[in-house]
Automatic annotation (TrEMBL):
Location within or outside the cell: Cytoplasm
Domain of life according to the entry: Eukaryota
Annotated protein name in UniProt: adenine phosphoribosyltransferase
Protein family according to the UniProt entry: Belongs to the purine/pyrimidine phosphoribosyltransferase family.
Main location class: cytoplasm
């Protein structure tokens, strides 16, 4: 869904990212499919692909601060 909505459908980088994310079924409760990204962080190629997609998406948006200083 995300790929099609953002013009990434067919992007080969998405497969490495998807394959690197561990799915934990029924966590924290039945019916939930928890997506554990810690395994993505351990896969150099998949993590680089993730960062590259973010850069490609936002590079022309003139963003001056990627984080909000105000947290709860």
């Amino acid at each position: 869904m995300f790929a099609a909505e953002n013009g990434l459908k067919g992007d080969p980088r998405l497969k490495s990212i998807s394959d690197a994310i561990r799915v934990v079924p029924h966590f924290p409760k039945p019916g939930i499919m928890f997506q554990d990204i810690t395994t993505l962080l351990l896969d150099h190629k998949a993590f680089k692909n993730t960062v590259d997609i973010f850069v490609d998406r936002y590079k022309d948006m003139n963003i001056s601060s990627p984080l909000d200083r105000h947290t709860r």
